[in-house]
Every structure is written in C-alpha cells, then in structure tokens.
C-alpha cells in the first residue's frame, strides 16, 4: 500500500512530438498519493497527451516518467505490470462491446490478478453496487446510456485495485443530463481517497473536488494552484483569458 | 418422360455410376475442409504479424516474408499453383489429395490474411488502448478483445472465401484427383451424355453453398446478440 502523500508519479522534463510537432514541452511535476489533480486548458494544449504519457499509451520523445519509483519509459520496464496499478477512463468509454458488463469488469482481474471467475464476479457485483448499476450485470454495453457506460468503465478500472486513476475528458462525450451522474461518482471516488489525475472541461468539478488545478497551454503547465487561488486569483495572463471565456 | 428416366438410369444406376459422384463429393469435402483449416491458420497468423508490424514497427523481416507470400499467391492463378505443387515441389508424393489440400490451403491463406487484417484494422484504436491500459499485454488484448470483434466484422467475407475455395477445388482434376467435378466428368465420358452429369454436379455445389450460407446467417445472428 502506498502511504498518503508519497510520490506516485514523478515527471521529469517530459517532451512529446508527433511528426516533428512538439505537443509537450519539457513538463516537470509530481503527483502524490491522495492528490486529485485536475488539468484544464484549451484543445490541443497537450493535456491529453500528458495524461497518456503517464501510462505509456504515448511514448515520451524526451524526458522521463517515474511511477512508484520505476522509470516507465525504460526499455526493460514491465509496463504491463505497472499499468495494472493505473486505471484509465477514456472520453469514448471504450467498453468491450462483445462482452457483457460483468465480463468487461472481470476480464482483467481474472487474466492478470489470478482471481477465479467467481471471486471476480463477487468483486464486480460490489463495484456495480458502488456505481449504482447492479441490475446491468448481464447487459451489453450497447444497451446502456452514455453515462451508464462511463460508470461501468470506471468500475472496470477499479476492479484492478489501482493506486491511481487517470481520467481523459470522461464527460466530454456525454449528453448534458448525464454528466452529473459521472461527476458524482468521481467525487465519491475522490472522497474515498483515490489518487486521481483528471483532464476535464468541468470547472465546477475542478473547483470543488481538486486539490491541485493545472492550466496547460502550448505544451506546458502555465500555472498550478489550489482551486481557490486558481479560479479567484489567476496570475497567468492566458489563464485569465481562458477563464474569462469559459466562466462567463 | 420415359426417355428422361432411361437417361437417369444410364447415367447414375448402370455400373453404380453414382458412386463416382459420391466418392468425388467425399474428396471435395476432405480437400475443402482441411484446406480451410490450413488457410484459416495461415491467414490469421499472417494477418496478426502484418498488423503487429504495422502498429509497432517491429517484426520487419517476418512482415516482409508475409508480403512476399501474399504477392506470389495473389499474383498467380490457383491452377498454376496447384500444378507447380504437384509437378515441381512434391514430385515424389503419391498422395494427390494431400497435395491438393496444401495447394488450396496455402492459396486460401493469402486471401484470409487480408480479410482478417481488414477486420483487425476496422476495430477502433480505443479498444486496444482500453485493453492495454488495464495491464493486458499485446497478445491478450488481441486474443480477448480485438480478434473476436474483428472476426464478427469479417464473417461474411470469410464465408465468401470458403465458398470460393469449395468451388475452386473443382480444378483438382488437373492433378488427377477424383473430386466431384471429375466424378461427373468420368460419367460423361462413359455415357457420352453431358447434360445430366454436369447439371447434377452443379446442383450439388449449389446446395452445399446454400447450406453454408444459411449456417453463416445463423452464426452471424448469434454473434450480433451484443448489438441490440
């Protein structure tokens, strides 16, 4: 178990280029256990790329990412093993459409944690209770609403008992009336002490739930502050413009 | 009507001539089934190597071999491949049916490979990312997440390939295998009557294809149960 406040991620001069276009420019920061770190910023600012570098869905061009002391962009690093400890929730949910909800949740624990199917089923039912969808166990993803899909996706990640959850714009593909149910679940998750890194456009969530809010623009973290300072006294000029545009 | 009955009798009953068709059909089945198994195995293997190479940039040498295989097989007529197999590569092999199975299986593998690869590419990137982000490795992600969905998407094309394969085995006669087509042809050469033997052979192929098509329909409906 990771003690609260211990460094989970250490990001050291992280840069990423796609076909010569630099999307991340030497980003350095740390994420500690218990943090709810919310990353906001305009489209194309590199915030999703930053998140995806944390679990090596993107390979850093330069710099290093350490997770629980392991350099994850090292050739010899067993990334698969470390990914078991990092849940990820996607904008497009990415549930497996050919499996029932139950199978979606239990696949990884059975294959990777050596759980029996019945143990995994029990755990999955608990998670379904937690996300409020116990009656959907035998449903297929395409029978669910967007909000339900995203709650199942969160349950699927939680089934691996991760040390940290990464959220990549989890509410951006949802109909407005479904955003609330997903945000409420994320709030509950944060209150339970889960370490979270959340890329989002939900400023209310950032202010209420985050303990750190980062503003990314032009591939760099332009400003980072506790939510109160971040929203009430933004220092960076581009952040001031950004906030004035979205908090009309 | 009497003439027709007489012809039926001449073509199929006299000297037990129907046995040519029965034996021929048996051989056609054996060649088709084993060539299909070989084709599917080869095809999936090649498709996975090709997509893995495209996605990760690794396996360059294997990918080159796969491309070479696809080019040669798809670039030359099946009949030539069959004859090369029989007259050049396996000169000393007596088992003609085995030669036919190898020739048709290797041929079909190339087409299956491209069908399966198109299926793999049709699955959105997010599916693989979701699998990998849970900690599954490349093989587990392919096996549990990508291939089942890809298979469903390409099922009609695959069945089409098997139907083509079934009908293509009718050239087995060129290396002296008595398949269904050759069986009908032998009857024709004995009775000097073309209509009945050839039409009968054609009908048998048609019925098999119709059965295959209806089986595919059922399988497809079952796989679609998650799409409701």
Mean pLDDT of chain B: 92
- SSE succession of chain A: EEEHEEHEHHHEHEHEEHH
The fraction of residues assigned to DSSP E strands of chain B is under 5%
SSE succession of chain B:
HHHHHHHHH
Radius of gyration of chain A: 18 Å
Q: Report the count of strand segments of chain A.
A: 10
Numbering strands along the chain, what is their spatial order in the largest sheet of chain A? 6-7-8-3-9-10
Q: Total strand count of chain B, please?
A: 0
Task: List its traits.
heterodimer; A: 248 residues; alpha/beta; six-stranded mixed β-sheet; four-stranded antiparallel β-sheet; 9 helices; 10 strands; globular; B: 228 residues; mainly alpha; 82% helix; elongated
What does this structure look like?
The complex is a heterodimer of chains A (248) and B (228). Chain A is an alpha/beta fold and 248 residues long. Chain A contains nine helices and ten strands. The mean pLDDT of chain A is 94. Chain B is mainly alpha-helical and 228 residues long. Helix content of chain B is 82%, strand content 0%. Chain B has helices spanning 2-13, 18-56, 60-75, 78-89, 96-122, 125-133, 138-168, 180-191, 195-223. The A-B interface holds A 55, 57, 80-81, 83-84, 86-88, 90, 92, 94-100, 107-108, 111-112, 140-143, 153, 156-157, 160, 166 and B 124, 126-127, 129-137, 140, 144-145, 148-149, 152, 223, 225-228.
């Amino acid at each position: 178990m990771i003690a609260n406040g211990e460094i989970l991620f250490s990001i050291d001069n992280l840069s990423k280029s796609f076909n010569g276009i630099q999307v991340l420019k030497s980003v350095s920061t740390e994420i500690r256990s218990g943090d709810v770190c919310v990353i906001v910023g305009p489209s194309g600012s590199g915030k999703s790329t930053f998140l995806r570098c944390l679990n090596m869905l993107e390979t850093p061009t330069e710099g290093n990412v350490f997770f629980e002391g392991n350099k994850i962009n090292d050739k010899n690093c067993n990334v698969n093993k470390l990914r078991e400890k990092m849940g990820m929730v996607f904008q497009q949910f990415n549930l497996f459409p050919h499996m029932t909800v139950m199978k979606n949740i239990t696949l990884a624990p059975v294959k990777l944690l050596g759980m029996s199917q019945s143990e995994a089923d029990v755990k999955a039912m608990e998670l379904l209770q937690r996300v409020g969808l116990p009656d959907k166990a035998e449903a297929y993803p395409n029978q669910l609403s967007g909000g339900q899909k995203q709650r199942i996706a969160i349950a699927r990640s939680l089934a691996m008992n991760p040390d940290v959850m990464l959220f990549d714009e989890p509410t951006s593909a949802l109909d407005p009336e479904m955003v609330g149910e997903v945000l409420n679940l994320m709030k509950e998750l944060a209150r339970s002490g889960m370490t979270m890194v959340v890329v989002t456009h939900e400023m209310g969530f950032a202010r209420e739930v985050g303990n750190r809010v980062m503003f990314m623009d032009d591939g760099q973290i332009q400003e980072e502050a506790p939510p109160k300072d971040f929203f009430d006294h933004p220092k960076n000029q581009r952040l001031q413009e950004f906030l004035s545009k979205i908090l009309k | 009507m009497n003439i027709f009955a007489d012809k039926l009798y001449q073509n199929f009953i006299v000297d037990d001539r129907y046995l040519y068709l029965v034996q021929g059909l048996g051989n056609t089945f054996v060649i088709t089934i084993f060539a299909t198994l070989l084709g599917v195995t080869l095809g999936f293997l090649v498709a996975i190597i090709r997509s893995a190479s495209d996605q990760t940039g690794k396996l360059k040498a294997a990918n080159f071999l796969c491309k070479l295989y696809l080019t040669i097989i798809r670039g030359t007529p099946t009949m030539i491949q069959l004859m090369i197999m029989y007259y050049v590569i396996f000169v000393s092999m007596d088992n003609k049916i085995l030669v036919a199975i190898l020739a048709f299986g290797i041929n079909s593998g190339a087409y299956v490979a491209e069908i399966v690869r198109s299926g793999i590419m049709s699955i959105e990137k997010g599916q693989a990312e979701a699998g990998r982000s849970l900690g599954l490795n490349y093989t587990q992600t392919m096996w549990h997440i990508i291939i089942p969905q890809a298979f469903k998407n390409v099922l009609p094309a695959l069945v089409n390939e098997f139907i083509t394969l079934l009908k293509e085995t009718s050239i087995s006669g060129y290396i002296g295998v008595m398949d269904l087509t050759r069986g009908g042809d032998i009857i024709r050469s004995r009775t000097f009557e073309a209509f009945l033997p050839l039409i009968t052979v054609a009908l048998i192929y048609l019925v098999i294809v119709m059965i295959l098509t209806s089986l595919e329909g059922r399988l497809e409906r079952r796989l679609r149960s998650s799409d409701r």
